[in-house]
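User: Study the fold:
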Amino acid sequence: MEFVALAGIGISAYGAYQEGQYQKDYGKYVVAQTEQDILTLKSQVDRQTGLAESIAQENIKRTLQAGAEEEAAFREIAEITEGANMLAIARSGIIMKGSPLLVMNDIALKSEEEAIEIRYKADIQAEDIEYQKNIEIQDMEYGADITIAGMRRDAQNALLTGNQAASAAGFKTAATLLQGAGTLYGMTKKPSSKTT
C-alpha cells in the first residue's frame, strides 16, 4: 500500500514539474517565434520602403526631365519669336537704338525669367515628391516599430507567465512531496502499545 501511495506522490510531483517546464518552454518558444516574425516584418518593411524609394526616384527623374523638355521647348519658341521680331523691326526700317532696343532686351529678359520659372516649378515638384516619399517611409517604419514593440511585449509576457508557472510548479512539486511524505509517515507509523 505504501508503494502505491509513493508512486502516486511521485507521479503527481512529476506531473506538476512537467507542467511548469512546459509553460517555461512555451514562453521561450513564443519569444523565439516572435523574433523570427519581427525579422520577417522588418524584411517586408525594407522591401516596401525600397519600392517607395524606387518609385519616387523614377517620378523625380520624369518630373525633372519633363521640366527640362518644357524649358527647352519654351526657349526655342522664344528664340524664334525674338528672331521674327528682330526681322520685322529691321524690315520696317526702325533703327535698333533707344526704345526699340530696350523693348527687345526687356522681351528677352522676360523670356529668360519664364524659362527659369519652368525649371523652378519642376524642381519644386521633384522636392515635393521626395518629401512625400520620406513621409511615407517614416510612416511605414514607425508603424513597424509600434507593431514590433507590441510583439516583443506580448512575447515577454508569455515568457514571464511561463517562468511564473515553472516557479509555481516547483512549489507545487515540493508541496506534493511534503504532503506525500507526511502521508507515508502516517501510514508507516505503528500505533504504540502502552500498557499500564
The chain has a mean pLDDT of 85. The longest helix spans residues 2-92. The chain is about 90% helix and 0% strand.
